[in-house]
Amino acid sequence: MEGLSVFGAAIGAGLSVIGAAIGIGKIFASAAEATARQPEAANEIRTTVNLPLFLLEGVAIISLVVCILAVVL
User: How many domains does the chain have?
Assistant: First the structure.
């Protein structure tokens, strides 16, 4: 059973990283498009993008920690 839990944790870690990468990519793509449409609002767009970015990175890190704990414990 030990090998199966390691395999499951590896799959979970991979999926969480892929999901976070897709989410961050969509956030920045939308921000770049919005900045291209309204360059004068670039500062407001940048500050609006920061909070979801930090939250998404935090969720990805927590999911990786959970996967590591699943292997260790």
Answer: 1
Kindly state the tokens that stand for 36.
């291209």
Task: For residue 33, give the H/E element and its range.
Answer: helix 2-37
Q: What is the pLDDT of residues 43-68, one digit of tens each?
A: 999 999 999 999 999 999 999 999 99
Which residue range(s) make up the domain with 11? 2-72
Indicate if the pLDDT at residue 1 is higher than 70.
Answer: no
Contact 63, 16 (CB under 8 A): yes
Q: How many CB atoms lie within 10 A of CB 60?
A: 19
The pTM of the full predicted model, rounded to 2 decimals, is 0.81
List all residues 6 or more positions away from 23 whose beta carbon is below 8 Å from its beta carbon: 56
Identify residue 20 by its one-letter amino acid code.
A
